[in-house]
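ok trying again, last paste got cut off:
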Amino acid sequence: ALFSGLSEAVQGFSALPCAKYEIEAIQSLYPQAHNMLLNQTFTADNVHQHINQAAYSILHIASHGQFNADLENTFILTYDDKLTMNRLERLISLTTVQDKPVELLTLSACETAVGDDRAALGLAGVALKAGVKSALASLWKVDDEATPAVVIEFYRQLQNPATSKAKALQHAQLQILTDEQYVRYRHPYYWSAFLLIGNWF
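nice, full thing came through this time. structure:
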């Protein structure tokens, strides 16, 4: 697994303080099989280099994302640059060419699944087109504190080999609805933005 993201404010975008907690909590579930790119190390070049050097079944990005009809304004923010739709597609294509397709791409960011008639599933759709088997993304600007609750629980559920990705997301959302520790996140705004696209298994 490659876990990456931004918690610091860069390039005029606000800080995402919970992104660091989210990434560190998820990587603790994969103690023997992960790499992490956070803040200064989360650059477009570093992501490219890591994907070139290893076969990752999970790519996780916690950052700002934006989808726009103008492809130049569609991107995932890195520390020093922006991963545009074209760059994301080229990166993902590397894994397919090397015959090591990514099983799951998680875009834990704002509006990453929003699209229009040019790309109905937004950045997540681009990832699927490039060869990712499944993508987890959000349909609207998600809450920085609530997002880790959903996403961490999703990965915790995935630890069970008998649980499909779709069931893992369902269980995570139900956990937010029913567990007392998440009572302040029970409104659908906090948990229902997340959807799984592609292979549900």
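cool. The two ends are 17 Å apart (CA to CA). Helices lie at 17-27, 44-53, 85-97, 122-130, 146-158, 165-178, 188-191.
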